[in-house]
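Re: [ENG-882] Designed sequences occasionally contain unexpected residues at chain ends

Forwarding the minimal case from QA. Structure tokens:
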């Protein structure tokens, strides 16, 4: 139920609230997971703040943007991220490490993003 004090939110504001991309908000709206309050003459969606907060959609911690299921380790002196064994990206290597040990960078990155740190010695 919308209250008189309720405000309309843009997809960008909703995305910021849930720490997701604005396109994710659009997909939620198209799938019926997030009620659309109105559509502007230009075709832009608006959402009631109370609906956004009550939707019960997954909210990602801004400090852990969702790398659970990913592993971060050191391979050949490079900090790499993998998902289900497949290489996702090289996070840091060579000069990008700024003189810091690759294992320390991998451990810190995993802690920051909620990934699993796998020490090179255990692989």
């Amino acid at each position: 139920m919308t209250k008189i004090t309720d405000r309309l939110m843009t997809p960008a504001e909703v995305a910021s609230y849930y720490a997701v991309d604005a396109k994710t908000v659009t997909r939620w709206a198209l799938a019926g997971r997030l009620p659309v309050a109105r559509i502007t003459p230009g075709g832009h969606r608006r959402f009631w703040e109370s609906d956004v907060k009550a939707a019960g959609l997954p909210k990602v911690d801004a400090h852990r943007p969702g790398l659970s299921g990913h592993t971060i380790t050191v391979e050949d002196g490079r900090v790499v991220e993998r998902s289900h064994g497949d290489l996702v990206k090289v996070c840091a290597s060579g000069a990008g490490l700024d003189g810091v040990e690759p294992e320390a960078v991998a451990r810190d990155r995993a802690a920051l993003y909620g990934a699993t740190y796998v020490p090179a010695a255990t692989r």
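QA comment: On inspection the terminal residues look reasonable. Confidence is low (pLDDT under 50) at residues 61-65. Proposing we downgrade this to a documentation issue.
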